[in-house]
Write a structure and sequence with these properties.
Blueprint (H helix, E strand, L loop, with lengths): L2 H12 L2 H6 L4 H22 L4 H19 L6 H10 L6 H16 L6 H23 L4 H21 L1 H5 L8 H6 L4 H5 L5 H24 L9 H19 L13 H14 L1
């Protein structure tokens, strides 16, 4: 199996909405974004699938060294072998890749955030940075496009947090800011024990309203001259926002279920967004 085939398999197996946005890219850009996505999946799985914190930390140290080896032209992992040829072509940098690893390590260090400022820092590492790198691969000619991508990444991650409240709670994690739980009189115990309430719905509506506002702010930042090139990101946004809308319509019953879209609906949203440009 070639490095590109390894990354393609990693992306396809995930079932992520990102996969659908890759379908409309040119072959070179598709290989680049697929390799970047596979990199993110590899380091994320290091944390999510490893029950021993020390082993997870050791693996992340290895990944940091592997990024250095890749930049020196000596990658050893299929993902870095696939990603290395695209680094210079799309002006990707090792600092952003290391920032993603830092974000994954944050999950080993804490499972609560006191306020939105702290949560936003985490989201920057695990999502906004990915947005910036992705926008470069798609084709960004205006600096404002990277600002759009950074904010859109934050909107994506907040959507994930809203959708996955129950799933994260079963792992002992609550990403909703502590001061906002207090603001709406929702205790951590209620979330950890999957107790849905009117206060919980109000808390989640507050989170969803913020995420919706971020989508609008991100779109407003996207320069007209880069809109066509950034269609893959807009496809992802259409899918993620559709998920957020479904969660809202369902009354935020996310403690015992994970709301998702069918593959055919994702493909339809991808096609419609692509056609509309």
């Amino acid at each position: 199996m070639s490095p590109d085939e390894y990354c393609q398999q990693k992306a396809a197996q995930s079932g992520s909405s990102f996969y659908y946005s890759f379908l409309f890219l040119t072959p070179d850009r598709r290989r680049a974004i697929t390799a970047l996505y596979a990199f993110c999946r590899e380091v994320d799985d290091t944390v999510d699938e490893c029950t021993d914190v020390m082993i997870a930390r050791t693996k992340l140290v290895w990944w940091r060294k592997e990024v250095g080896a890749m930049m020196a032209g000596e990658p050893t992992h299929p993902v870095t072998k696939a990603l290395q040829p695209h680094m210079a072509v799309y002006a990707l940098d090792s600092e952003h890749l290391l920032a993603i690893i830092d974000g994954m390590e944050m999950d080993l260090d804490q499972n609560r955030y006191l306020d939105f400022i702290g949560l936003q820092k985490y989201c920057w590492h695990v999502a906004s940075v990915v947005g910036i790198l992705s926008a470069k691969i798609f084709g960004a000619t205006n600096p404002k496009t990277l600002e759009y991508a950074e904010k859109l990444g934050l909107a994506f991650q907040l959507t994930n947090i809203i959708r996955d409240v129950g799933e994260d709670a079963r792992k002992g994690r609550i990403y909703l800011p502590v001061n906002e739980l207090q603001q709406f009189n929702v205790t951590a115990a209620e979330i950890l024990n999957a107790r849905h309430s009117e206060n919980f719905e109000k808390l989640m509506q507050f989170q969803a309203t913020r995420a919706q506002k971020l989508y609008d702010e991100a779109f407003a930042l996207l320069p007209k001259e880069d809109r066509r090139a950034q269609r893959p990101g807009l496809i992802m946004a259409a899918i993620y926002r559709a998920v957020l809308n479904e969660v809202e319509r369902d009354g935020f019953h996310v403690l015992n279920q994970r709301i998702s879209l069918t593959p055919i609906r994702k493909l339809w949203l991808a096609w419609i967004t692509y056609i509309r440009g």
